[in-house]
């Protein structure tokens, strides 16, 4: 194995994106460290696990020690994002500026704000008015400014809502697949006849790992590989076909608590509910043209996700 292949890649954040990315990087032959506030569990074999608080300068610097590439996949409780995420950015950006590591940031669609159904490309205007959208846009502007100034080498990868094995807290996650398999109530949000993009968690990992390996993409935003948008009703029909039963749907026309989405979460999510009252369509063709990576078909993602949830419900998966 070449020396280049053994460069240390450090993944910050041990949620579904971080753990899937760490496994993908190991598969590609890299030395990998996975960092979260407590020592990560259930990491892939071969991953070094470390605890650190990357919202502090000391914690971030300790986390990225020795890294050639750092991946920022940190997330926090939804109601704390506006307060905490800027602190994480400041600490992580300072750490990579000090060490010289490249920084790959997992980003959201929030900076675009309301699109009124227009297809989102990397050239779409940033016109967010929500608290979290404005916050994310400011963070992204700071990342790109740091790159332009030569302070750090940075690239951003934006994803739509996640779907896939290990993804629980998504609108296509724990409120959909378990009840689909057991006959419970499946949640749908807003207008389920609008097209809505979802990014497979494995494509998040493949996309971020590619950006980490190829510095030619630095200094800009990329849309990570995302399958063509389908309506929620179409996706439900695809799930029905796979589980062999009609879904018992509960449609929330406006945000209110449901299952794991408690009042605290839904109160904070209300400003983002426009994502379910207008089409959310992501175009990731620039990534495919540049890096040759196309999104996983949604059919395949649904198959692997249902298999993962079946194992989870059977108690055969941690």
UniProtKB/TrEMBL annotation:
Pfam families linked: Epimerase
Coiled coil: none
Domain NAD-dependent epimerase/dehydratase: 11-216
Name of this protein: Epimerase
């Amino acid at each position: 194995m070449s020396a280049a292949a053994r460069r240390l890649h450090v993944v910050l954040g041990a949620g579904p994106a971080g753990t899937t990315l760490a496994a993908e990087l190991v598969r590609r032959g890299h030395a990998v460290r996975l960092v979260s506030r407590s020592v990560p569990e259930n990491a892939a074999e071969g991953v070094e696990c470390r605890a650190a608080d990357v919202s502090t300068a000391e914690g971030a610097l300790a986390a990225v020690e020795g890294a050639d590439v750092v991946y920022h996949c940190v997330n926090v409780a939804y109601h704390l994002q506006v307060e905490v995420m800027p602190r994480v950015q400041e600490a992580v950006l300072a750490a990579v500026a000090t060490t010289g590591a490249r920084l790959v940031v997992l980003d959201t669609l929030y900076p675009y704000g309301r699109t009124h159904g227009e297809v989102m490309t990397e050239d779409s205007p940033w016109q967010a008015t929500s608290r979290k959208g404005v916050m994310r846009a400011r963070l992204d502007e700071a990342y790109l400014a740091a790159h332009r100034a030569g302070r750090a080498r940075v690239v951003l990868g934006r994803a739509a809502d996640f779907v896939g094995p290990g993804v629980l807290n998504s609108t296509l996650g724990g409120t959909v697949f378990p009840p689909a398999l057991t006959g419970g109530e499946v949640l749908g949000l807003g207008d389920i006849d609008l097209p809505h993009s979802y990014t497979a968690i494995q494509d998040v990992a493949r996309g971020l790992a590619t950006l980490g390996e190829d510095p030619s993409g630095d200094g800009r935003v990329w849309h990570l590989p995302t399958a063509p948008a389908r309506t929620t009703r179409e996706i439900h029909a695809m799930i029905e076909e796979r589980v062999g039963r009609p879904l018992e749907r509960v449609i929330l026309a406006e945000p209110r608590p449901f299952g794991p989405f408690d009042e605290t979460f839904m109160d904070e999510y209300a400003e983002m509910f426009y994502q379910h009252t207008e089409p959310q369509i992501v175009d990731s063709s620039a990534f495919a043209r540049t890096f040759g990576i196309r999104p996983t078909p949604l059919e395949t993602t649904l198959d692997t996700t249902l298999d993962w949830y079946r194992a989870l419900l059977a108690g055969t998966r941690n």
